[in-house]
Amino acid sequence: MGARRFSDLLDPSLNYLQINGKPCFIDDSDSIIDIESLKKTNGSSYLSRKSNLIRRIFTAISSYPYKKTNKNLDQLAKELPESALILVIGGGTIGDGMKKFVGDVKGKLISTDVYDSPHVDIIADGHKLPFKNHCFDLVIIQAVLEHVLEPHVVVGEIHRVLKKDGFVYAETPFIQTVHEGAYDFTRFTHSGHRYLFKNFTELNSGSVLGIGFSMVWVIQNYFESLFRSSKLSKLLTLPFYLLYYLDAIIPEKYHIDFGSGFYFVGKKSEAPIVKKSIIHYYRGRM
Q1: Domain tally for the chain?
Q2: Which among 241, 235, 229, 220 is positioned nearest to 54, based on CA atoms?
Q3: Using CA of residue 14, residue 18, residue 24, residue 29, what is the dihedral sign?
Q4: What does the pLDDT look like over 196-253, one tens digit per residue?
Q5: pTM for the full model?
Q6: Beta strand pairing status for 136-142 and 162-173?
Q7: Is residue 162 assigned to a domain?
Q8: Which residues contact 237 (CB under 8 A, 6 or more apart)?
Q9: Cross-strand partners of 122
Q10: Does 147 map to a domain?
Q11: How far, in Å, CA of 119 to CA of 264, rounded?
């Protein structure tokens, strides 16, 4: 898929490479992504994305908590115009809870990531999106902001490429152990996540993954530390997945303080929130 399809959206001042037949806009001098390494792998991810039986079982069971993702995206879809154009940042894999939404908006969605995959249209670093100002009606960024060095810069780029009154949907972790190794940098509380999107009017926010998910993640990594085996740790953790379902009876204020991750639904604004207001924004148990 070439750049011609995006010619009316791309910044004409930018030069790009072709990697695996797709435009690549990563600035090698100002990114943690190494272009030469990307060329050698023909754009493939630096991490294994292959599936196996254990991973498929794990994915099937762990998809339950992402029902909030489905609900949030369904609601956003109702707010979008018929001709809406949607950008997914970090879309190398279809995120948990996003499969139905992606299928419904096929043809209206452009996906970027720092590596190539069948789901990627443009290889790009979220710190420097290659698009003109005011292009998109919705930007989705799920489980990405923990993997970028400067989350506020990425959110600034999201604000820039959104149309007036455009929407953002973000999911970002809070209590999660390190994943993706050296490419994992940051976590956010619910309040910190809100302030990250200070230039947006909040429409909705809350826990997308609760305390149970936090517990399962830690237990699995505890077993891996004991037995030095990722596969064995996943198997030993299976009985604890019941904790996912118990999250439904725990009040939201506890998920705000102990949850695994948060979502934010916002509309582009030109006036940032007042700094002192973030103290009163807190919705936890205290």
Answers
A1: 1
A2: 235
A3: negative
A4: 999 999 999 999 999 999 999 999 999 999 999 988 998 999 999 899 889 999 999 9
A5: 0.93
A6: parallel
A7: yes
A8: 216, 219, 220, 223
A9: 112
A10: yes
A11: 24
